[in-house]
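User: Now give one protein:

AI:
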Amino acid sequence: MSGARWRTAVVTGASSGIGEAVARRLAAGGSGLVLVARDRDRLEALAADLGPYHGVEVEVLAADLATVEGRSAVEARLADGHAPVDLLVNNAGFGTTGDLVDLDPEAEDRQVQVNVLAVLRLTRAALPGMVGRGRGAVVNVASLAGLYPTPGTATYGATKAFVCSLTDALHEELRGTGVTATAVLPGFTRTEFQERAGWRPQAYLPDAVWMTADEVAAATLDGAAAGRARVVPGVAYKVLNGVTSPLPAGARRTLLGLTRRLGL
């Protein structure tokens, strides 16, 4: 099911991690690709690998989604009716760690630009064409962190809460149009994310809690193809989500605050 459903997909944050894994699965399924990230060299290497091997067209669009110029370039590609896109995977994102009072406000601003504003703007750019053609899907990669307060990564958790809420609302707005919106809520996944955020949970979390980027990518594309509103990859994380969701907001906040104070 993964990939063949879509003719052309735009994947942001495609140079590594979940985005790269999604792109590889889409290409293997016969979808053309528009790869978006800041690192042109990585994108071109990935395009040279995927295009000839799978016989699909792969475009490279190097763009910094923390900037107006970068977002505008991707918006223009999504709105191009002469080369329509029927799948948008908003995967680009990053996090910071530490107490908000100590963090660089410019870095926090960039985080909101990439994790929130880019998702909003790119989704808005893609939807008119998709709805007009009566087919398409938007996949927004959020996080289980979006369901809870996250002391020590407060801005990151808040941005992912926005993504969850936005996508849930869109899923209902798009009913009957032939277009779907899916939020993906991964747990701990082995990518470059933790290193870039200056966070080392791998130092104390057991291997059993970690998923691979390819496992998340497979769940993502299968869920999107089925038109699901939310995808929580991994059985263990489905169970965790089911067990903790009924807890009152105050209990979840206290529990996570205690976890933070214990240095976990």
